[in-house]
Fold:
Amino acid sequence: MTTRRTTPQHKMLRGPRGPVGYEVWGGARPPLLLIAGLGSRTTLWGELPRLLSEHFTVLTYDHRGVGRSRGGSPFTLTASAEDAAAVLAAEGHERAAVLGVSMGGLVACQLAFRFPSRVRRLVVASSAARLTPHGQLVLEFFSTIFRLPPEDGAKALMAFAFSPQFVDRFPGFVDTAARLYTLPPEDLPGAKAQLEHLLQGWDLRPILAHISCPTLVIAGESDPLVAPVYTRELAEGLPHARFRLVPAAAHSVLAEGGSELLREVIDFCLSP
Structure:
């Protein structure tokens, strides 16, 4: 009988672009790769990998420049997709379900486009198909946030990550999220490099039609960072996508969607 791990295995690999630090939760279950957002390390996921490891072998990794993935070539969306593919290969997974959130959704789309045989099912949450004028303003806001002391910056972001109703109902959860998002000083240069890359702009629309795997695209109805109209645009560009709007939710839509949304994501990723 296999005992499910309640703590992750911490691993390193030498990827095509430099060192990649990653974690593995569980084992002997279908693989699910989680790809987080701007400046994120594996710790940002909080309890989610442990919960998902009831159903999957969960893999997460640090983006280039932060956590244990410092060094190597500069961050780009395509390079991060190569890091993701390297993690799957290192663990011997030919195909996996992939869940990307915010900037991680952009990387997940690049992974599905560049390495189609690796992605069995795709979930994209709180992501935009292109950098819009509003998105430019949001990224410039992040530039300001990154100039604050890390604890203050992370706390300020919580006003945009969660809806007012969620903050009022679950202040303890939001405080924990702020602590998880607080960047250690050594990660700040890498997070800024990721932001500078995003500020150069992106447009996924030319590649979306070539992503053939089933996809679930999720948006928060009240997301102030990535308006749902931009996430819907991404879904409409994918040939096999279903769009899911979560009422009243902000940017951290997976948290605000609660157990009902989590069950929907699990069932989608487990489907043949």
